[in-house]
Write a structure and sequence with these properties.
alpha+beta
Length: 295
Amino acid sequence: MKATLTRVGTLLVLGALAASCAKQDLVGPQPDEPQASSQEADATRDSNLAMGNPSGAVASTSYPTNYLMSKSQYALSYHRDQGKPNWVSWHLSSAWLGSTPRQDNFAADATLPSGWYRVGSTSYSGSGFDRGHNCPSADRTGSVADNSATFLMTNMMPQAPTNNQQTWANLENYCRTLVGQGYELYIIAGSYGKGGTGSNGYYTTIDAGRIQVPSNCWKVVVVLPEGSSDASRVTTSTRVIAVNMPNTNSISTSWGSYRTTVDAIEAATGYNILSSVSSTVQSTIEARVDSGPTS
């Protein structure tokens, strides 16, 4: 009798477990459902240079045109003689985002080496060009300090207003949309060339020649599901968005119109943008033009 009761008890427990598993299968995430909420719980703030140092910038005054500046919010290569960054690199995940409002406290960067000209908050005034963020204010809303860091003038480039306020901004917004879908991004942005057309016409420099106006503004976005060891997780199927926009006020507001390859941007700048990624993977993803959604 005891053996019979034991067998019945075992069958009841197994039946309950089966029902429980079946219920979990029914209510579990379906393939087409977004996984953002669970992934956001794992979001971290990772190295802003995880994908590499595109120009081999060095934190030494012996390299005034390729001077590495590493902040907790982003890293950059600064060009003393052009008064702007060559490139800025940053990580973006939900861990960087919060409710801090835009500070709008544009300021000279006091961490530039002594004796170097420091572009100020009014250096662009009357030029017809915006103080265009490389790392956007809205990508750093976790604290006042984080947001204020994006308003340092070492993070700015002279950008045609239509480009900055519409085309460039639309891509920035799309990047944060991807974060909301559970992805983390590595973004590298910069400018090159000389001469752009702002609201006051064509200029090659502003601020009495101390700031060079670029001809092009570019950005590379590596899109990954949240995780760790990020550079090693980049594969030949990883989505990489690369854009190269003319710095003009007549630019289209559709950022997707300016998609290009990482290879093309590297050819124009001389950089190795994803240097920490396997060279075999680089050869595939850097030759491909993104064809994914734009909103």
